[in-house]
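thought: user wants a sequence for this fold. calling inverse folding tool.
action: design(structure=
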């Protein structure tokens, strides 16, 4: 990186943890204090801690904590390399500083240290992509490519914005939407919905290259979502026609105070009828006002995705480009590595 030779090299210290139970309390407190922004790491970490307490130990997960120095005074970055039921996750990196407070020179050296530590504990082909705020994802991708000679793609898999919603932000409609000759129902999915949800999961994945699903994998994901009680459906019927599922909304990375909407999809047959907006709003209301309410809901939305307008109308902050920027609403990138040399996962 040009100009770095004149700057004193920071001495970052990286610890590796193969057990969620061993993950340091100091770093856990940082994640919990930033639960919405840390939604890619915290819920999975907490789930693994609970599973380990019950005796279920996995060798598929590890976490790294990057400190400011060998004195380990401040936690700078937290990294996860974990696996879900549908496959391995990207390398997730959480930066403790706000995007605008990150210094390019410090990030550069931190990503060098993290890459070196990762290279000692996992096969290189395990790193199929990285997902983090843009000012972290790009330096990590460059550092990892330089270290391993595995090329990073110049075009991100996912160019997105993280946004948030709380009770005060939720925009509720004045009255129920009336659609001519159409009846609909918004509800938690049941087992009878699994085939239709599976098809929509498959269709969603087909638009999310390279994370495609076979029909069997789509059905498996639907079964898992329904069994966990974390997917809602927008049922719809036009006139005397068949009842169908127009839209689904899933929220699968959740912890004590924060839920994360992770999948929103509308069948192309039923688009432009407000189905996604209607269902997202209903799900958000349920999450924020249930008997066990969350304080905040997070989501990522593609920067070229017109759904950003839907989420803005529901109340997610920082998505209206005509309004001032909102603190914490940041650009996040998933950058992939040469698929001929890595083992592709799924998330």
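)
observation: tool returned 347 residues.
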């Amino acid at each position: 990186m040009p100009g770095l030779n004149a700057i004193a090299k920071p001495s970052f210290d990286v610890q590796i943890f193969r057990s969620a139970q061993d993950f340091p309390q100091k770093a856990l407190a940082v994640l919990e204090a930033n639960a919405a922004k840390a939604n890619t790491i915290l819920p999975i970490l907490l789930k693994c801690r609970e599973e380990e307490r019950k005796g279920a130990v996995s060798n598929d997960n590890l976490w790294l904590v990057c400190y400011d120095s060998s004195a380990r005074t401040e936690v700078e970055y937290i990294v996860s390399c974990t696996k879900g039921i549908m496959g391995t996750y990207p390398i997730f990196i959480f930066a403790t500083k706000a995007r605008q407070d990150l210094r390019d020179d410090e990030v550069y050296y931190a990503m060098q240290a993290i890459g070196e530590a990762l290279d000692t504990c996992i096969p290189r082909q395990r790193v199929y992509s990285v997902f983090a705020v843009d000012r972290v994802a790009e330096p990590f991708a460059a550092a990892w490519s330089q270290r391993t000679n595995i090329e990073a793609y110049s075009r991100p898999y996912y160019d997105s914005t993280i946004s948030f919603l709380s009770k005060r932000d939720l925009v509720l409609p004045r009255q129920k939407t009336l659609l001519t000759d159409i009846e609909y129902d918004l509800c938690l999915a049941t087992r009878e919905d699994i085939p239709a949800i599976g098809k929509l999961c498959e269709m969603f994945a087909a638009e999310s290259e390279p994370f495609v699903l076979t029909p069997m994998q789509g059905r498996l994901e639907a079964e898992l979502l329904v069994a966990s009680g974390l997917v809602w459906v927008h049922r719809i019927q036009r006139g005397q026609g068949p009842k169908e599922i127009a839209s689904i909304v899933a929220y699968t990375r959740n912890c004590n105070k924060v839920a994360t909407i992770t999948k929103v999809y509308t069948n192309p047959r039923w688009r432009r009828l407000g189905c996604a907006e209607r269902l997202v709003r209903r799900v958000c209301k349920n999450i924020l006002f249930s008997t066990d309410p969350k304080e905040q809901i997070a989501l990522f939305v593609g920067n070229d995705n017109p759904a950003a307008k839907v989420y803005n109308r529901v109340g997610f902050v920082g998505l209206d480009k005509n309004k001032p920027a909102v603190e914490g609403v940041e650009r996040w990138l998933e950058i992939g590595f040469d698929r001929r040399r890595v083992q592709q996962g799924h998330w």
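thought: summarizing for user.
answer: Here is the designed sequence. The helical segments are 25-33, 42-53, 104-119, 134-148, 194-206, 215-228, 275-289, 307-314.
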